[in-house]
Amino acid sequence: MTEKDPGAETDLDTQSKVEPVPAPQGRTEIIETDYEIGRDNLTSSWKLEFDIHQVVFTVSALGVLAFTFFTMAFQEELEPVFIGMRGWLTSNLDWFFLLSANIFVLLSLFLIVSPLGKVRLGGPEAEPSFSYIGWFSMLFAAGMGIGLMFYGVSEPLSHFDSAMGGISVGEDGIRTDWAPLGGAEGDVAEATRLGMAATIFHWGLHPWAIYAVVGLALALFSYNKGLPLTLRSCFYPIFGERVWGWPGHIIDILAIFSTIFGLATSLGIGAQQSAAGLNFLFGFSTSNPMLITLILAITAVALVSVVAGLDAGVKRLSEINMALAAILLFFIIAFGPTLEIVSGFFANLLAYGEYLPALSMPFEREDANFASGWTAFYWAWWISWSPFVGMFIARVSRGRTVREFLIAVLIVPTILSVIWMTAMGGTAISQLVNDGLTGVQDTALELKLFEMLTHLPLTGLTSFVGIILVIVFFVTSSDSGSLVIDAVAAGGKVNAPTPQRVFWTISEGLVAIALLLGGGLAASQAMAVSTGLPFTVVLLGACYAIVHGLLKEAR
Amino acid sequence: MSYTQIMLPIDLEHADRMEKAIQTALALAVQFGAKLTLVGVTSELPGVSAHNPAEFKEKLSALAQRLGEGLPQGAQSRTYVAHDPSVQIDGILLDAIKDVGADLVVMASHIPNVLNAIWPSHGGKMASHADVSVFVVR
């Protein structure tokens, strides 16, 4: 830097938390749009500082308030309606969910091997924003989190059970059993294989492909094309300038709705499950004050995390989360049936590959109960979470190539899910089959993990790690969710004043408490899952946008 | 006594609210014959002021060039990219004081409001944490 060259970048050799901008990031196809980010925003900097998208924020905030009120006030009328709606969707449109999810998997796998995989998010010379460990921890903590804790033990066991039971046909010729595919009546080895394959199917490539599609579309359109980080941006190739109007508002409002109710209901239900765990371990009560205390505690930690920000809060907490999960996993592998788990990993991977085509078949399923009750429900659930998880994944993935992104979002988590499910479910099945322990089988869903741990050494310690992990998983969902909601409600701005995040984090907690006390958790969760349908259409559009957008980038 | 290096944090997004601070910094730079460095913080994501960090850097640099025309020592700029600017900005600006070697910070800040009792403004926070003089322009 010389004084004759004013405005030049100064040399920076001092230690600094943040790196100065590297040279221009290479050529990308910036989309020229008349839209200016924040154009429709309402800002104030005097009495109370805020910066929000007028339509999206207002409609979402009022909508959340109204919906919470009505589900509580008309609980008995609305609950059957929403649960009926979810049931109708998953049983009549199961083929649509299954078919779409297959498309997402195939597209992701294709992009990994195609030359389009070389495109770098943020331009050819962009550098990754986060280290592999930090990046991956955040992906995983936001993406699966809590479900792994409760379903890791229960789901393999449940499929194993129903597969063992074999097929039973009702009077009308329709199968009444819940066994996946043709079941495996009385065949322990085959029922184990089928049970594990079915579980891994629900936690493997398909859910992660759903997240990958949303994450990739958003990252591409924000970092490479220069559009704001909100869900509507990936519709630019389809709607053109109209995405900045009502079609876009609706997409964004729907995204906020599904995120906040998805988070609030899982917070409410999760508090009940955590309380049951605490009751099992320490004899704490499971009364309402206890549940409210739990929700408030989780919200308080999430609040500290969002106020501390992405690096100091969310990332650090996600890393702690991963470390704890790894400790629990290694403990179970070491003190559980070690050899069985190790060999089971390869056997289960093989079983997954073998059953994958049949399990993902969208049409002519003989196992209708399993395909719609389990698979289609899961797909709708993952898809309703995808705006939140996808947007968060996009937020932390700048500087990665498309190939790197997809391997990290699709392949690595799938392998980890296989390991996790093998260790948790495999140990539970082994306890049942080899040791004749029926404890886990007979216990309620939320206690299965803890019941399994009582048959391993150091129960007190591992159960404690387990319950902490459950709570931390909630926090990592709640804080990243609030960041996402805030960005969408601010029209894609990530530099909006911090108090807005506080508003959304507290709203989640309050909605959870209201629904818990007033009833309506089940209804709201059914509503959140039902948003999976419109979002499936949104995701199919995103698939087109991804290919369209990638073709125009420098490889 | 005099100042040799003035740091002027710039919010490109709200350039309209910055005019008074800019004029103050320019006057002081002329008065003391000090160098002026503009500091900007941007996110990696598209924002109001730029589509990407490179574009942000160019814009800030152009502004520095324009403001530096009337100054004996000219003006430079320095851009920082943050993962989460809303939260990191105060820390980054404090670091920037050292990076720039500033002995005076001139910055715009809003009029204190009710919320500032629990949520300090950027200018207020800078003034209480920096070990150099901070001129908070209201």
From TrEMBL, chain A:
Source organism superkingdom: Bacteria
Location relative to the cell: Cell membrane
Keywords: Cell membrane, Membrane, Transmembrane, Transmembrane helix, Transport
Membrane topology: Multi-pass membrane protein
The protein's name: BCCT family transporter
Principal localisation: membrane
Family: Belongs to the BCCT transporter (TC 2.A.15) family.
Membrane-crossing segments per the record: 55-75, 95-117, 129-151, 205-223, 244-270, 290-310, 322-351, 371-393, 405-433, 453-475, 502-523, 529-551
Region Disordered, residue ranges: 1-23
TrEMBL record, chain B:
Superkingdom field: Bacteria
Domain UspA: 3-138
Pfam family, one: Usp
InterPro entries with a match to the protein in the record: Rossmann-like_a/b/a_fold, UspA
UniProt-recorded name of the protein: Universal stress protein
Origin species: Rhodobacter flavimaris
